[in-house]
Amino acid sequence: xxxxxxxxxxxxxxxxxxxxxxxxxxxxxxxxxxxxxxxxxxxxxxxxxxxxxxxxxxxxxxxxxxxxxxxxxxxxxxxxxxxxxxxxxxxxxxxxxxxxxxxxxxxxxxxxxxxxxxxxxxxxxxxxxxxxxxxxxxxxxxxxxxxxxxxxxxxxxxxxxxxxxxxxxxxxxxxxxxxxxxxxxxxxxxxx
Length: 192
Hints:
There is one protein chain. This protein is α/β, with parallel strands linked by helices. The chain contains 7 helices and 6 strands. The chain has helices spanning 15-27, 52-63, 84-94, 106-109, 118-124, 160-168, 179-188; strands at 2-8, 32-37, 69-72, 99-105, 127-130, 148-150. It has a 6-stranded parallel beta sheet, with helices on both faces. Helix 2 (52-63) packs antiparallel against helix 7. It is globular, with a radius of gyration of 17 Å.
């Protein structure tokens, strides 16, 4: 099975995340997309980051009606701070019958050469890159790379930060969230 890994804090997960993941699941050769919820780094100030399991619950609520989209807490049990290469190694050991790929925005590809063991990641995993409006250029070593697949996905200018600030300001952001996520956030009174 070909699985795309979509990493993030998902604080909260919103329709932009869902649209992109579903686009990749439906219009690429990936069989599934797993939302890998990144745990809170114990060395960083918490600010507005919800608890790991609350964010995982929101991802579950967002994806439960989509057969090709799955929540993943795989990084919760790994040592912190964690690196993508460690997660990939752990997943490959746990699921030897799966082929794992990374999903990232073009903005992340611009700094990919700074990631720990990025050469090893590229050697063993494909990368699906979706368009993002951002500054800077992608390193030429990644132009036309056989393991890097550019995906013509919709560009959605929506961020979790904007949603959190809007909730705090008392704005109605219901259309920006999957219905079950909105209900969970509202019930739990998060970000107010």
